[in-house]
Amino acid sequence: MAHRDAPEWSAAEAAALARRLIDLDVAEGARRSAGPALDAVRGLGHRPPSRDPARRAAYAELLQVAGWITFDAERHHTSQRLHLRALEAARGGPDGPLPVEPLILAVLSMQEEHLGRPDRSLRIASTVLARPDLPGRVAAVFHVRAGRALARLGRGPQAMRSLHAASELLADPPGPRDPAWAWWMDRRELDGHRGLAEAALGRRDRAAELLHRAVHGADGGPAYRILFAAELARVLAEAADWREADHALAALLDTAPTAGSVRALRAMARAARTVERSPSAPRRNRTTARDLTALLRTTHTPPEPADRRPDPPGPQTCSSRGKPVQRSAAGRWPASLNRTTAAGRPGA
């Protein structure tokens, strides 16, 4: 008899649901896809399948997608719980970790840095980098994570060495061992993270140059890269480059209404506050910043808390225990996902 926490779902069903969640996130952003993502994982039950490798992989990947979406929606307690459940599933099989396991760790490392815990971020990244024979793109991702954390810790030379290592790895084209999930780790992504590392080290001119390249590159890239545009506006304001800062803020006025990333929207709000609080900001810049602040209020983005740090995950967070959950009464999966949207895949 099947356990009540292990409803009958196939690997194909879970994979298709993850695909629809990804498409919804690309089309609508985390603000609108977080709710359907949580509805989706309720349909999985709380225990990973123990015997079927395909179902275990689909279970882990669906939890990872939901964890990414809730991270980008700034719902960090929930995101960490989902990622830790995904990690348990990814590591629990007899054949070793699943291919999605490094992606789960990459997002957890980024989340720790985002929440002001660069020491924990660095610990996760260093653990993965110590593994032998990593695929090139995977190693590049974790060198970026390490570089960002080191910069936040004020360890500039080490941060630059780690980011340079990532750059060298990206000089080679993707190889057959590189996972499909690492498609977003390209030059523009690296430039954005290098810019944020330079900003953390107080080198604003270099940070602005790199962020500008990340924002204005030739290719499209993931929608979450609007975050780099918001950080560019903030860095230019901190550098008192008021002409360029006003251009960057004005560009955010055009993109804010359709932005789905709560992280990006909050970064826009921080950029506007930087201008509004600067005693040297010209009147024109203050007006643009006030216009952006007013526009952001219409997006109904939850305000950024004074302390963004969630409680450290404890034993209950790491556990897969929980109350039994039910599928949607309307069908096997949430009705909000019974449709097809534009193709895409999550970045990190």
Largest β sheet strand count, sense and barrel closure: none
Low-confidence stretches: 1-6, 309-348
Query: What is the gyration radius calculated from CA atoms?
Result: 20 Å
Helix proportion: 55-70%
Apparent shape: globular
Bin the strand percentage. under 5%
Mean pLDDT: 85
Q: What is the tally of beta strands?
A: 0
Please, how many helices? 15
Structure description:
It is a single chain. This protein has 348 residues and is mainly alpha-helical. It contains 15 helices and no strands. It has helices at residues 11-28, 30-42, 53-72, 76-91, 101-114, 118-129, 136-152, 156-170, 187-200, 204-215, 226-238, 242-255, 262-277, 283-298, 315-318. Helix 1 runs parallel beside helix 3, helix 5 (101-114) packs antiparallel against helix 6 and helix 7 runs parallel beside helix 9. Residues 1-6 and 309-348 have low confidence and may be disordered.
